[in-house]
Specification:
Strand content: 15-25%
Number of helices: 13
Low-confidence stretches: none
Shape: globular
Strand order of the largest sheet: 10-9-11-1-12-13-2-14
Distance between the termini: 16 Å
Structural class: alpha/beta
Largest sheet: 8 strands, mixed
Helix content: 25-40%
């Protein structure tokens, strides 16, 4: 019985979304612009990397072809050595928004068909009733921030005041999100999680997609650093995801990274956490070795987005892509006959783009595994085709608008 592994390279978009104008993102292209920057020398960093973008494994799967098909522009990274050996194409997001839940839910077969709620780019940004209830129910002396902000910059701005006053730092972005940052020792990690649970309930009527706990450590002298103990408290997805169907059928389900948080821990089976892309890859390989036949694994590699996209770090993003690509042969070596690996993304986060937010883009879809016939799967009109392809291979019921390319 086949196994399916869907691996999301968080934010690794490939440009070209037709509705990008509605999001202020016309011209954004995460992969294309990273490749062009590296080719021009703007991806060099001493001691990290230099030269053109080199992704030999994914390029052999058809990554460059997918990027060119999406944008109509030449792929500026190093070309493939030898014939294409994977299935390749690109996906078009139909869900509203350009955030993590929208992309992942659609990948899983259930696009978002409702309008998310957002907080305005004003100060204060949050409704007074929400702020008052959060302070009252959380027994807080008040809150700091109350605006759109970069998650790292706001720590530099307000971290010391937070430590002095005990007020948590609350901020948002163009995404449907309430983020609450607090010092792990001064405020307390479990207290932060409980405050986010309160915030989750208060944000439900506003259709805010996620409330995110952003713990950090450090001080004003040494600097403030976010820790890996982030937690996302998400609205539950629509019914019928590939996770729901696999769980109902009694299949082994493993979710790696923040997938459990994104799907509100529904149908997410064995949840595996690790800090950083390489630790996540180690964990992924261990699960590949033990996943039962007929099982489904869903993984998210968040560093591309959180560490490099939002921080507009082209060399860091390029180095992370190259490090990930270099480990894919280890994954391929562990596959069994009938297995399918799908590499994709949930949105873009062009590190050459203005601001610090996600970008509305197409996403690459690359497939490989023993017996997978190479070739184009073309333009997929919804990310949900990924979930339906997984369902078809696993013999699970069909659901929603997606269509398998098998």
């Amino acid at each position: 019985m086949s196994r399916v592994f869907v691996i999301v390279l968080d934010s690794v978009g490939c440009g070209g979304a037709e509705d990008a104008a509605a999001y202020g993102d016309v011209g954004a292209d995460t992969l294309g612009h990273i490749a062009e920057a590296c080719a021009a020398g703007a991806g060099d960093r001493a001691g990290l990397r230099a030269g053109p973008l080199r992704l030999p494994f994914m390029t052999r799967l058809g990554l460059g072809l997918a990027a060119q098909a999406s944008t109509g522009r030449r792929w500026a990274a190093d070309p493939a050595e030898g014939p294409v050996r994977g299935q390749w194409g690109y996906g078009v997001e139909t869900s509203r928004g350009k955030d993590t839940p929208s992309g992942h839910w659609e990948i899983a077969g259930t696009p978002v068909d409702f309008a998310w709620g957002y907080f305005p780019d004003t100060q204060p940004s949050f409704p007074p009733d929400l702020t008052a209830a959060l302070i009252r129910e959380g027994a807080l002396p008040g809150i700091l921030g109350d605006k759109h902000a970069s998650g790292t910059e706001i720590l530099d701005e307000l971290g010391a005041e937070h430590m002095r006053t005990g007020k948590p730092i609350c901020y948002t972005s163009v995404d449907s999100v309430l983020q609450i940052a607090a010092h792990e020792q001064v405020f307390g990690l479990e207290r932060l999680y409980e405050l986010c649970r309160i915030g989750r309930r208060l944000c439900d009527p506003l259709r805010i997609g996620r409330v995110i706990a952003r713990p950090f450590t450090g001080d004003a002298n040494t600097g403030f650093v976010r820790t890996p103990r982030r937690k996302d408290f998400a609205i539950p997805p629509p019914a019928g995801t590939i996770l729901d169907r696999a769980a109902k059928a009694g299949r082994a389900v493993v979710t790696v990274g923040k997938i459990g948080d994104i799907f509100a821990h529904r149908g997410t089976g064995r949840e595996v956490k690790a800090a950083g892309n390489m630790a996540l890859f180690d964990a992924l390989l261990g699960e590949v070795d033990t996943l039962a036949n007929g099982g489904f694994l869903f993984a998210n590699f968040v560093d591309f987005d959180s560490e490099f996209g939002h921080r507009r770090d082209v060399p860091g993003y390029a180095a992370a892509l190259e490090a990930f690509d270099a480990r894919l042969p280890e994954l391929e070596a562990r596959l069994r006959p009938g297995d399918l690996v799908v590499l994709t993304a949930d949105h873009g986060n062009d590190p050459t783009w203005r601001g610090t937010d996600h970008t509305r883009e197409h996403t690459p879809i690359l497939c490989f595994g023993p017996g997978v016939a190479p070739g184009s799967i073309g333009r997929r009109e919804t990310f949900a085709d990924i979930g339906e392809t997984a369902a078809a291979l696993l013999g699970l019921p069909v659901h929603g608008p997606g269509r398998s390319w098998l």
